[in-house]
Amino acid sequence: MADSIRLEVTRYRPEGDSGPEVQEYDVPLRKEWTVLDGLNHVKDEVDTTLAFRWSCRMGICGSCGMNVDGEPKLTCATFLSDYAPGPVRVEPLANFPIVRDLVVDLYDFMEKLPRVKPWIIRDDDLTVIDGEYLQTPEELDAYKQFSMCINCMLCYAACPVYGLDPEFIGPAAIALAERYDLDSRDRGARERLDVLIEHEGVWGCTFVGECTRVCPKHVDPAGAIQRYKLKAAKENVMAFLLPRGAR
Amino acid sequence: MSEGLVRAAHDVLIVGGGAAGLRAAIAIAETNPRLDVAVVSKVYPMRSHTVSAEGGAAGVIADDDTLDEHIYDTISGSDWLGDQDAIEAFVHEAPRELLQLEHWGCPWSRQPDGHIAVRAFGGMKKKRTWFAADKTGFHMLHSLFQTTLKYDAVTRYDEVFVTRLLVDDGRVHGVVAIGLFTGKIQAVTAKAVILCTGGCGKVFPFTTNANINTGDGMSLAYRAGAPLKDMEFVQYHPTGLPFTGILMTEAARAEGGWLLNKDGYRYLQDYDLGKPSPTPELRSMELGPRDRLSQAFVHEVEKGRTSDSPWGPIVHLDLRHLGAELIDAKLPFVRELCLKYERIDPVHELIPVRPVVHYMMGGVHTDIDGATPLEGLYAAGETACVSINGANRLGSNSLPECLVFGARAGRAAAEFASTAGPAPAVVEAQAADEVRRLERDLLAAEPGAERTSTIRQEMQATMEDAAGIYRTGPALTKGLDRLRELQDRVGRVGIADTSRSFNTELLAALELANMLDIGECILQSGLQREESRGAHQRTDFPGRDDERFLSHQLAYRNADGTVRVESLPVTITRWPPGERIYGR
């Protein structure tokens, strides 16, 4: 193994006149080093001005998503040695506005997330004195996979539909809606369907499946979207047959 | 106030969006829906370090368990330094808080009949640790965060870093903060402020903590005149991965994992922690408390019974006998992390581990309602020291601590804010001072001779040498001298990055300044505690000394920047100091 590898890193300062540029850095190639370790080496030893987000370095906080050689990745869980001999392109996540260097603007997702009401909805709120809502392991398994979303935004960066139509509510938000719909404690499916049945809800998706492929936590947003399309189609048929009050 | 300098005024402002901060926000919204709540966090809330907690959250729920047993386990675990009134309140309220999280959607692991499942944990005599597989913190944080989205009263300032508290005559009125996106420095006033910024593991070189754990809230309080309590007590978790410091949860041992030295021997049996048995026994062997397990590791190193790795001596965590099915059901994240970061499969292979800095028992001194000595200032979670953890925290007590005391601080701050008046005009001058300090001393300064990363690395090495698992007076003194040198040098750090947008170099410099303050408090408090208790082990004072030191230590900042340590009695209710007994 060579002892170093070249990173081709996107640089961008909003104060400058020009658009994003590429800067090259050679970093040590060590078998235990991730792409994030390489970036931190640059930040600490080579160029203190490089800007990127990171925190837990164990693949759970969701901060350090970037496009690595064109593919959305958690850089803390992506090893440099898998890209040897390099070079490795490190770019901000695609489909988001760039704020600075490798940092993208997540405002759009943060604004969309509450729209799908990702919380438990019930009319008959038990108080905690009444104890827990019973939920069998099988009922837990029904939604568990969708609850693993870390909001890392790799699925948005991979989604060709979101790239073309930023109004599309997007894979993670739909997966989280499904997470609550499938939770035996929740009664909010109707309210969420009202949101997702809209044009920019689930219909934009052309079932490319990239979101599921790139998810680092094995969530299946594409599956969630398909299920909503079925629910919405059924709803439309019902709407045709019955007045709303009878549904 | 002048146009632009004060961005907004709120009733309660929470600094930090982890479990404690978000729980506080909901408590305020539910206590008094008319109050306007702000959550200011340097990261998006769902990135907060709560996300990394793995093993679980303790709360008495099983039929064979009692509140008194949880209280006793916590007190003896704390080596009698925890305040017993606070521990009693904590243990009483923890189950209710965990049930509340259940109602908010937390996917707790279940028994076949649908009731909450509990697991064993270190230092606990009964099974009482609620868990969501081994991603408990992740699920708690996302449940809390998503639940906060339904409260209109909660305004979020994401990726906004607080640099100073606004204080007038002992009363806190808000903060000055820098928005990372634009670099804009502004004041945000509030009738009450709650600090929930988590711990400060990054003071040390080898830690389970995330990059963001730089003790910001502790430093903010300390500089504003509030004392930091029991800062000498630093928890080393016995099982971290050697290079990364990534946590191998205690749940791995609770589910039956063994700690083996290089001879394959379960060495804990040599350290008064009980006798090995094939299945886990509560409060025994691998389920002893973290301080004692980490200390045993050091003795194994001294006896030459550990293995070598490129990152120093290691022992092994053995899960092989548990089988793939149990590991995948109860410890899937452990397996995922081992496969990813060590390229080993714990179903078939031994996991290399060594002790790693994990948690601060100390923090901002608060009463049982999260109130600090500064009027209008509250703290909760790892940032705070109530204290329920004393000299050693038990695993799975920290997550419910965030909930119980986050809620308590939220309610207390809400009550205070309901009657308090707006900020006086004088704080505007303070805000202007702070803007000048940041603009002139940091952003506009010529790039200096010193580099933040170099000083940070030297600080971390200093802390490890001086305040490791075992400490001595001379080493602590030497460490303090070294930190004061670094304090001088940090003034010569320049910021090469001239962009205002997402200037992480500036952020790192401000975080480093926070950590240097905290490091001094840890070392000065450690120097003055001339005894060995819990996680604070002095080889020059090897015994616990209740006569002199059954007391908290409060670290205050002197005007010249040095640390002054005062003592405060421990609250004893029903459990007089006794011997800590494990495995017998």
Automatic annotation (TrEMBL), chain A:
Cofactor binding note: Binds 1 [2Fe-2S] cluster.
Domain 4Fe-4S ferredoxin-type, residue spans: 140-169
GO biological process: respiratory electron transport chain; tricarboxylic acid cycle
Record's catalysed reaction(s): a menaquinone + succinate = a menaquinol + fumarate
Domain 2Fe-2S ferredoxin-type per the UniProt entry, residue ranges: 3-96
InterPro entries: 2Fe-2S_ferredoxin-like_sf, 2Fe-2S_ferredoxin-type, 2Fe2S_fd_BS, 4Fe4S_Fe-S-bd, 4Fe4S_Fe_S_CS, Beta-grasp_dom_sf, Helical_ferredxn, SDH/FRD_Iron-Sulfur
Pathway assigned in UniProt: Carbohydrate metabolism; tricarboxylic acid cycle
Record EC number: 1.3.5.1
Matching Pfam families: Fer2_3, Fer4_8
Leading EC class: oxidoreductase
GO molecular function, a single term: metal ion binding
Cofactors (names): [2Fe-2S] cluster; [4Fe-4S] cluster; [3Fe-4S] cluster
Protein keywords: 2Fe-2S, 3Fe-4S, 4Fe-4S, Iron, Iron-sulfur, Metal-binding, Oxidoreductase, Tricarboxylic acid cycle
Keyword Translocase: no
SUPFAM superfamilies, sorted: 2Fe-2S ferredoxin-like (SSF54292), alpha-helical ferredoxin (SSF46548)
Family: Belongs to the succinate dehydrogenase/fumarate reductase iron-sulfur protein family.
NCBIfam families: dhsB, PRK05950.1, PRK12385.1
Protein name: Fumarate reductase iron-sulfur subunit
Source organism (scientific name): Nocardioides gansuensis
Automatic annotation (TrEMBL), chain B:
GO terms, molecular function: electron transfer activity; flavin adenine dinucleotide binding; steroid dehydrogenase activity, acting on the CH-CH group of donors; succinate dehydrogenase (quinone) activity
Chief localisation class: membrane
EC number of the protein: 1.3.5.1
Pfam families assigned to the protein according to its UniProt record, in alphabetical order: FAD_binding_2, Succ_DH_flav_C
Binding residues for FAD: 16-21, 41-56, 216, 382, 398-399
Positions of substrate binding: H237, T249, H358, R393
Subcellular location: Cell membrane
Catalyzed reaction equations: a quinone + succinate = fumarate + a quinol; a menaquinone + succinate = a menaquinol + fumarate
SUPFAM superfamilies named in the record: FAD/NAD(P)-binding domain, Succinate dehydrogenase/fumarate reductase flavoprotein C-terminal domain, Succinate dehydrogenase/fumarate reductase flavoprotein, catalytic domain
Superkingdom of origin organism: Bacteria
Key words of the record: Cell membrane, Electron transport, FAD, Flavoprotein, Membrane, Nucleotide-binding, Oxidoreductase, Transport
Membrane topology, from the record: Peripheral membrane protein
One cellular-component annotation, GO: plasma membrane
Residue ranges annotated for the FAD-dependent oxidoreductase 2 FAD-binding domain, each copy included: 11-399
Catalytic residues as annotated in Swiss-Prot or TrEMBL: R290 (proton acceptor)
GO biological process: anaerobic respiration; electron transport chain
Cofactor(s) recorded in Swiss-Prot or TrEMBL: FAD
Domain Fumarate reductase/succinate dehydrogenase flavoprotein-like C-terminal: 456-582
Family named by the database record: Belongs to the FAD-dependent oxidoreductase 2 family. FRD/SDH subfamily.
PANTHER family: FUMARATE REDUCTASE FLAVOPROTEIN SUBUNIT, SUCCINATE DEHYDROGENASE 2 FLAVOPROTEIN SUBUNIT
Record note on quaternary structure: Part of an enzyme complex containing four subunits: a flavoprotein (FrdA), an iron-sulfur protein (FrdB), and two hydrophobic anchor proteins (FrdC and FrdD).
Protein name: Fumarate reductase flavoprotein subunit
